DNA sequence: ACTTGATTCTAGCATTGCTAGACAACCAAG
DNA sequence: CTTGGTTGTCTAGCAATGCTAGAATCAAGT
């Protein structure tokens, strides 16, 4: 048995290596640069090995997205926990979210821009994704306002953040006024 | 001279054909399906002809994006002109925007998701893009609220709409509650 | 030592964006 | 009409992509 166990361990280790390398490559030069050949070369295996772990490139993106969702949830909870009062928590949440998108553009792309073959907003949505949304909901639910469904409010707030994040990163919005935009958004949307 | 003029006309006509076909193909099966080979075949010319009109695929996307920007501006002005009062105009604007994104997903992608090699939010930004933003500003400037820069407010509102549009289309938000989200957004962001 | 079964690699397919160089069509001058 | 040159278009090909079939290799158990 121990032989098989060792093999399984090694296999799991290699899978981690693949994902870490894919992410590294993507953050370095974008997901377009993550070709199966380059990835295979970096992990010092041949291409077909990748396909023994993942169905294809899409599934690799999906796996990175799941990692990212978990990290995003952690980052959001860390950001809000330091703040006092609902209003301050929402501001911290917004800043934390945009910060995450700026600092991990490739992971953010995997999560919300690219096709990783994941199911969103459904029953079979993977746990990390649900938890990411839950992290948003925890803080935003407090400021949804009377008669407004917390989940609906969270969706709208999230969409706004997402819009700011993507438009800024795509050069459609200048980064200078990022902070003013966040303040305006929180001021208007959150009911305190 | 008339010979040259005819040739120029024919050339311009063919350029229109290329763009219309690219757009058609993109709306049919997404921009990934718009390959230079398929495009060339549809217009019944060989691939290199495309490169005598555009530097490459990116520039074709950019050209479609410019068309789209002009159409979006028209659509937004048409939507708002029928509404009475600032509040109704903003609602109409939001609906019109999301409608445009839903009805022309490929064009919307060319405009705001893909790289068409265009400059945004700068001096050398092409006129149609500036005008698209202007169309938003005309209606949103009215409801920015005291002490809030109209352009800043427009950016935030636009980002929210963009977030709703992209997340919905990518399956990250369910389309059922689209209308509720718009109402909530307008209610909170617009100062009437 | 040998066989068997899993694992990994080499080599290749079809498709992509893009381009060089051959070829043909056309127009102006003789 | 013929010729010469320009302009335009096409054929053929490159390197890179995602993915896969089948050969080669390695390790485990007898």
TrEMBL record, chains A, B:
Keyword line: DNA-binding, Transcription, Transcription regulation
HTH tetR-type domain segment(s): 12-72
Any GO MF annotation of the entry: transcription cis-regulatory region binding
InterPro entries given in the database record: Homeodomain-like_sf, HTH-type_TetR-like_transc_reg, HTH_TetR, MT1864/Rv1816-like_C, Tet_transcr_reg_TetR-rel_C_sf
DNA-binding annotation, residue ranges on this chain: 35-54
Alphabetical list of Pfam families matching this protein: TetR_C_33, TetR_N
Superkingdom classification of source: Bacteria
Coiled-coil spans in chain: none
Protein name (database record): TetR/AcrR family transcriptional regulator
